[in-house]
User: What shape does this take?
Amino acid sequence: MSYNLTGDPLVEVSGLTHAYPVVGGELVALEDVDLSLAEGERLAVVGPSGSGKSALLRVLAGLERPRAGRVRVAEHDLTALNGAGRDEHCRRVTYMGRQADANLWPALTAQENAQLPLAGMPNSVAGLRFLAEDLLNGLGLSGRETRRPPELTRAERRRLALAVALAPGPRLLLADDPLAGLDDEEAEVVRACLDDVLRRLGTSMIVATRDHRTAPRVDWVMELPAARSLRQYPAPGRSVPSGVDPGRTSVLIVDQVRVTGWWQGQPVVLDEASFQVREAEVVAVLGGSEAERSALLDVCGGLQAPDAGWVTVAGDRGGDAWRNVGRLPRHSPPPSLTVSESVSFAARLVGASLRDSERLVAMVLKATGLEHHAATPVDRLSAWEGRCAALARALARVPALLIADEPTAGLDAVAAGAILVLLRDVAASGVAVLLGTREPVVAEIADRVLLLADGRVRDVQPWR
Assistant: This one.
């Protein structure tokens, strides 16, 4: 596909192809993309979830190296950036992720947040304050300068995030769905303010969105096709078992467990649940309410004690069982660490030495396809990469049991399939996997399924 815009190009892309390695194949995000964008122009990249919108922005931001093709932004060849070139590129281009307003400093005022990106510039304190105030005023935050992010409305926080992104005066703003979550009235206010500020600054913009009608005001629209496929090929020396040897050791033993209480604001009653999960086996929990499935997984993972009965994980019972468990949570708020640091922290938490944690980090990042993102802050990862990072942290604990609560939630079909491939590969390495899902198609990867109904757990075997 090709989009050729007028004027001297600020962005030139030709033949761009980008893919993410996964166990057993690769996830194709972009294929043979061409575009050019002139100085001061704005482009909306439109497409459904999984079409590669976020991947394109991350490549243009220099956060990911493209698989193939030519990419130039502000005279920089992004396929050959070194350390100094990357720093210069970051001064000219600002990337604003989907959760940018959640990453504001809550203890700082709006003005102080807007001044932070200006700290390294040769300006006086008064000059920095003037620049920050000018941006805040332009984005409709006049009178809110001394308010802290928790004291602002959702739309105001989004405008503050835009002020922080534009404070360094970038030539190009890359914004991933900046109006997401706002109602029509709020979005129109942000749209008008941003339009005015971009014109005054002369800043170009590329914005990713599912629908151009909900995007900021742009000059051009570029449509990406639906989700790409997962290219799958055999991993050397690895195979996914078609069945599980019934003679393998039981890692998780749930014996006559009863659970009563409140989970996620809903009453939960589970009566006399008994089942086992063996080495290299995937067992899915299907049916019941979301709260019931989460309650059962929490008890199995040692986060909550049952009202009656016992849970044993790798021979440990009660308070010590959690040490044998890795968790892939449904919601994983990103810490302010790099991928490598967050995985290392998970390993050290269960007693790994510094040397062992470094070895574990290298292994699990390679296994989850994140070795090229070791130094990337977790909050700059895409939804798919963030789920892989959460899995890497779980595996760094060297668990006997992996518990995954709705592992495909929030992912498009291609990314969901890729995460399921990863979970099957984890099981192939000998780890017992217990996952909760509301989707029967997700349960199809399991060797057995536990059906929840009327507070009872029924073991369906075989499932496939």
